[in-house]
User: Which sequence fits this backbone?
């Protein structure tokens, strides 16, 4: 189940351990309201406030296409920036 509000969780951004009640749930798919079959990661409140709250549609596919976890950082960043800075198709 979900655990107690006092259970410690680790912030995925800074690594700090905080009480669950002092953290925010993070769902990499951007849908933390659909809880079926999910285990959530957590962010401490300061890291959550710093989080960019943009739409994540297609983000996982873009990360995969850029080689996340398979290529070096420089290559990944070059690929990711190329994927995300291009004009969307059909736009003039």
Assistant:
């Amino acid at each position: 189940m979900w655990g107690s509000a006092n259970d410690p969780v680790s912030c995925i951004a800074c690594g700090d351990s905080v009480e669950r009640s002092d953290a925010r749930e993070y769902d990499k798919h951007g849908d933390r309201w659909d809880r079926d079959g999910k285990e959530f990661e957590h962010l401490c409140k300061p890291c959550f406030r710093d989080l960019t709250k943009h739409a994540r549609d297609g983000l996982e596919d873009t990360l995969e296409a850029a080689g996340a976890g398979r290529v070096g950082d420089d290559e990944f960043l070059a690929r990711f920036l190329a994927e995300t800075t291009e004009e969307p198709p059909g736009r003039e």
